[in-house]
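Risk register update: the risk of archive-format incompatibility is retired. Evidence:
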Amino acid sequence: MKTNPPSGPQHGRLYSLVAFFSRLQLGYLLRSSRNPRPIVMLFVFTAGATALAIISAAAYVTKLPLLFPPLGPSAFILFYTPMSESASPRSMLLAHVLAVAAGLLALSIICWASPNAALADRMAMNWHRIGAIALAMGLAGVAMVTWHCVHPPAAATALIAAMGYLETGTQVAGLIGAVVLLILEAIFFNRIIGGLPYPFWRSDPKVAATYGTLAGIPESGMTFWQKLVNKTFQKR
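Archived output:
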């Protein structure tokens, strides 16, 4: 008796192709591997290098100021701890925007308070410059905590603005544009390549709690400072 080959969507070529590539995603490999560290290292290297290469190429082709130092640590956080709150698109975008505003505001306040402040030379260090840097750092920190968008690399963005490196609106727009481009790359790499439920906007703490180190949670379940506090109270 002749039997017909199995049919249905689960036996089609497209399904087989999707199933094959799904086994190469970061999420699947981490669940099936006994030693996930090399896999994470490879993902961080590939995604980080590609993301910054794309932004660098875009800056070269468009001649726009899309490159600035905080992009490096931001990319590391987005691809090493993608499920953490600090890696969410909301935290990264708001933190960098608030940091730019804090840096420019601090610089404006110092210039207003001391009209004769010699801040034209970005390389010159004086008490006015120190005041602008300190004020920018304080304002950026308070803003990130207030709006619940803590993203550590943004603190460096505030310093860049306070030191006078953002002189035109084009430079500010280029900085924000680079941040948006990096977020889009994070969504692609983490969701499509990584197979992770990376958020489109805000991080979900309940989902993040199940991803351990990918959410910035140490394998022991406690951070360095939590361990230090526990040891201190144990001694007492």
